[in-house]
Amino acid sequence: MESADFLVGRGGPQRRATMFQNLKIHECYRHAEQARQKAETATDSYTRNDFLDLERRWLSLAHSYEFSERLIYPSQRLTPAAHPRA
Q1: How far apart are CA 10 and CA 2, in angstroms?
Q2: DSSP class of residue 86?
Q3: CA–CA distances in Å: residue 34 to residues 10, 41, 46, 48
Q4: Nearest-angstrom CA–CA distance, 40 and 16
Q5: What distance in Å separates the CA atoms of residue 10 and residue 25, rounded to the nearest whole number?
Q6: Which pLDDT tens digit goes with each residue over 50-81?
Q7: pLDDT tens across 5-50, in order?
Q8: What whole-number distance in Å separates Cα of residue 44 and Cα of residue 49?
Q9: DSSP letter (8 states) at residue 81
Q10: At what angle do helices 12-41 and 45-72 cross, to 10 degrees?
Q11: Which of 15, 12, 33, 25 is nearest to 68 (CA)?
């Protein structure tokens, strides 16, 4: 194994960046779900609204990451044939 192969790692930097991006997206959705659960158990409307707002912010961040991923890696998008309509 050459030293450059060791630095790049398996799959190259693009694959690692995509995996890291996917992890960030997953974490955003996880935080959004936690905020939703806390909103559902909140005892007052002020707290409930705060958690619902927090959920919206986490979802917005996840969508932003997803959008940027589509811009950076357009070749990884699904083709219309690979994405059947319901």
Answers
A1: 12
A2: -
A3: 34, 11, 17, 12
A4: 36
A5: 22
A6: 999 999 999 999 999 999 888 876 665 554 44
A7: 434 445 566 666 677 778 999 999 999 999 999 999 999 999 999 9
A8: 9
A9: G
A10: 160
A11: 25
* Alpha carbon separation from 11 to 2, 19, 21, 37, 61 (Å, rounded): 15, 10, 15, 37, 27
Amino acid letter, residue 24 = K
Question: Which is nearest to 45 in space by CA: 53, 34, 33?
Answer: 53
Q: Provide the 10 A C-beta neighbour count for residue 51.
A: 18
CB-based contact 79:48 (threshold 8 Å) = no
Phi, psi dihedrals of residue 9, rounded to the nearest 5°: 80, 170
